[in-house]
C-alpha cells in the first residue's frame, strides 16, 4: 500500500515522502531515503486464521506458563478479570515438570525465554518455587521472568528470585496506579523494601511495565513517579501502549481524546523521553531496520509472536492456549500430550484483515491483538493506531528531523 507522508520541520520547512508498506520503501522529495545493498532475506510469515490454522512445534524459543488466574487485584482493563480460577496444586506443577520431556523440545538456552504468568504468580509461591527450580535446573542460561503486580513481594522473595536468576517484570502505572489498578506496591512497606533492594542492587533483573490511558498518558510522568518513590535516578520502563481490549471501560472515546494522546506521545518522542522506554525504543529501531533492509510486509508476524510455531503458552494442566491471557475453554487449542493435533485456529493474522493491510502503521502495530473481534477489535485497532501513529511520526523526526503532519492514502 502506498501513502504520501507530509513532513514538517521545526523551522516550518516541509517535504513530501512516499512510503510503501508492502516493501518498506521510503522516497523523500523524489529521492530514496537509503540505498540498500541487498534485500533482507526474511522468510514469509505464517498467515494463520481459523481456516488456515497454525501449529506448535520445536525447537521452542518462548514458553509462557499460565499458573492460574487468582489475583489479589482487579485492574480496570485486565483481560482476565471476568474469568474464573481453575484450581491447581503443587502436584500439578510436579506433574507438569515430570512430563516435559514428552513434548518439550527447546532451542538452546541462549535463545530461550521462559515467562511465568498469572493472575498473580506470587499467590502461588509453593508452585512457583517448584516450577522455577525445575526449569532452572534444566535451562541454567535461559532468560526466565515472572510477570507480577509486585504487591506480594518481600525481601526474602526478591533474594530468592535473584538467586534463581529470575527477572521480575512489575506492572505499575505510576501516578495512574490507584485509579486504574488499585493496590500500589510502593505503598506496601514489605513490597517497597523488596523493590528498592532490587533496583539498587540488581537493576538489570527488574523492570516496570505500564499501560497508558486517557487520564495517564505521559511516559515521563510515569517514569518520574516511580524513580522518586524508589529513590533512584533511572529505572527500566516498558509499556503495553494505549489500553487495548478492555470493553471500552478505560479507552479514549472521542477524536479529541485520541488527538491529545497522539500529540502528547509525539512530544515525548521528539524530546527523547519516548526513546527511554524499552518498548518504544525497540519499535523505533525495528521501524528503522525495516526501512534500511526493505523488509517486506509478508514477513511480518503478529506483535505478540504467539502466531509463531516456536512460541507456546500452556497451563499447568497441559492445555495449549491461544495466549496466556485467554483461559476460556474455546481458546484451548490442544494438549501437550498430543502436540501433533494442536492447531492455532482461534487467531487471525493481520493480513486477513483488510483494514490492517490498508494501514500506514502496520509495520509498527503488527496487527494488535490476533484474537480480538467485533467491538473489542474496533477499540483495539483505533487505540493501537493512535499509539503507533505517534511513534511513527517520532521515528521520522529522528530519521529526518521532520515530523509527519498528515498521511494520504494513494493506493
Automatic annotation (TrEMBL):
PROSITE patterns cross-referenced by the UniProt entry: RADICAL_SAM
Cofactor: [4Fe-4S] cluster
Key words, A-Z: Iron, Iron-sulfur, Metal-binding, S-adenosyl-L-methionine
InterPro entries, sorted: 4Fe4S-binding_SPASM_dom (IPR023885), Aldolase_TIM (IPR013785), rSAM (IPR007197), rSAM_sf (IPR058240), Sulphatase_maturase_rSAM (IPR023867)
Source domain of life: Bacteria
Nucleotide-binding as UniProt keyword: no
Domain Radical SAM core intervals: 55-276
Protein name, entry field: Putative Fe-S oxidoreductase
Species: Paramagnetospirillum caucaseum
Lineage of the species this protein comes from: Bacteria, Pseudomonadati, Pseudomonadota, Alphaproteobacteria, Rhodospirillales
Amino acid at each position: 500500500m502506498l501513502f504520501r507522508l507530509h513532513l514538517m520541520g521545526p523551522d516550518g520547512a516541509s517535504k513530501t515522502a512516499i512510503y510503501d508498506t508492502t516493501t518498506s520503501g521510503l522516497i523523500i522529495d523524489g529521492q530514496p531515503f537509503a540505498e540498500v545493498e541487498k534485500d533482507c532475506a526474511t522468510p514469509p510469515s505464517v498467515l494463520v486464521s481459523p481456516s488456515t490454522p497454525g501449529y506448535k512445534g520445536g525447537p521452542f524459543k518462548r514458553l509462557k506458563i499460565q499458573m492460574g488466574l487468582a489475583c489479589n487485584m482487579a485492574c480496570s482493563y485486565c483481560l482476565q478479570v471476568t474469568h474464573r480460577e481453575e484450581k491447581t496444586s503443587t502436584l500439578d506443577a510436579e506433574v507438569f515438570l515430570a512430563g516435559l520431556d514428552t513434548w518439550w523440545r527447546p532451542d538452546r538456552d541462549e535463545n530461550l525465554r521462559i515467562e511465568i504468568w498469572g493472575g498473580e504468580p506470587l499467590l502461588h509461591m509453593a508452585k512457583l518455587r517448584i516450577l522455577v527450580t525445575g526449569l532452572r535446573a534444566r535451562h541454567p542460561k535461559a532468560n526466565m521472568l515472572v510477570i507480577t503486580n509486585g504487591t506480594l513481594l518481600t525481601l526474602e522473595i526478591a533474594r530468592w528470585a535473584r538467586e534463581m536468576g529470575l527477572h521480575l517484570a512489575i506492572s505499575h502505572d505510576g501516578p495512574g496506579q490507584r485509579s486504574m489498578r488499585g493496590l500500589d506496591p510502593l505503598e506496601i512497606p514489605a513490597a517497597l523494601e523488596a523493590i528498592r533492594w532490587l533496583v539498587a542492587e540488581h537493576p538489570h533483573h527488574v523492570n516496570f511495565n505500564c499501560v497508558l490511558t486517557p487520564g495517564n498518558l505521559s511516559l515521563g510522568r510515569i517514569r518520574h513517579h516511580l524513580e522518586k518513590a524508589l529513590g533512584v535516578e533511572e529505572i527500566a520502563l516498558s509499556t503495553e501502549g494505549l489500553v487495548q481490549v478492555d470493553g471500552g471501560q478505560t479507552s479514549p472515546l472521542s477524536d479529541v481524546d485520541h488527538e491529545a494522546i497522539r500529540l502528547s506521545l509525539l512530544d515525548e518522542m521528539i524530546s527523547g523521553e519516548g526513546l527511554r522506554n524499552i518498548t518504544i525504543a525497540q519499535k523505533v529501531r525495528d521501524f528503522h531496520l525495516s526501512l534500511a533492509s526493505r523488509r517486506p510486509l509478508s514477513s511480518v508476524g503478529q506483535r505478540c509472536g504467539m502466531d509463531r510455531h516456536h512460541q507456546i503458552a500452556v497451563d499447568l494442566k497441559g492445555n495449549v492456549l491461544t495466549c496466556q491471557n485467554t483461559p476460556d475453554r474455546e481458546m484451548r487449542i490442544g494438549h501437550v500430550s498430543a502436540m501433533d493435533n494442536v492447531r492455532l485456529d482461534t487467531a487471525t493474522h493481520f493480513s486477513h484483515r483488510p483494514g490492517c493491510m490498508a494501514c500506514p502503521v502496520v509495520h509498527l502495530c503488527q496487527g494488535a491483538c490476533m484474537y480480538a473481534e467485533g467491538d473489542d477489535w474496533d477499540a483495539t485497532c483505533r487505540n493501537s493506531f493512535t499509539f503507533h501513529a505517534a511513534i511513527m511520526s517520532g521515528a521520522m523526526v529522528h530519521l529526518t528531523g521532520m515530523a509527519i503532519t498528515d498521511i494520504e492514502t494513494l493506493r
